[in-house]
Amino acid sequence: MRRIFALAALALGLPLADAAAQSHPLAGKWTLEFVAGQRIENGEVTEIKGSATLVLDVTGDSLIGTLTSHPQPGMAQRPPVRIAGKRIDGEVSLVSTSEATLSTNGEETKVKAVSTWVLRAAGDAVQGNVTRQLVGMEIPGMGAQPVTGKRVP
User: Fold this and answer.
1) Global pTM?
2) With 50 as the cut, is the pLDDT of residue 123 above it?
3) Domains of the chain by start residue, with CATH
């Protein structure tokens, strides 16, 4: 892959150092699996599993993309969200914001959710964690949750 990239850079007249600087192991399309939320009923916490497609591109010194959740039975489809972070070697921290719906005794409340995704790619696999914060709320059990995934060809 690097050889093809280098040949393309030479054909376009780009310096190899500049062309290599444009790639990143997390750039591309990924399928992720993670804990999407939790249900607390009568004091019992149940994790809600989720999956999504993550598409990341290198833009200058950043990784910017879209995270599109896959439909889940019994839940409303979430709209795609923008996700971005600083392009660095190794583990990358990406942030997305969305709207979360909380339901308490049948009463729904919408709040802003900030998700911090810490990911590391190794070949065609990705792993890391996601931490969510509901702005203005303290919710127990909202620590880092594992994320795994694989590159989509």
Assistant:
1) 0.77
2) yes
3) 28-151 (2.40.128.120)
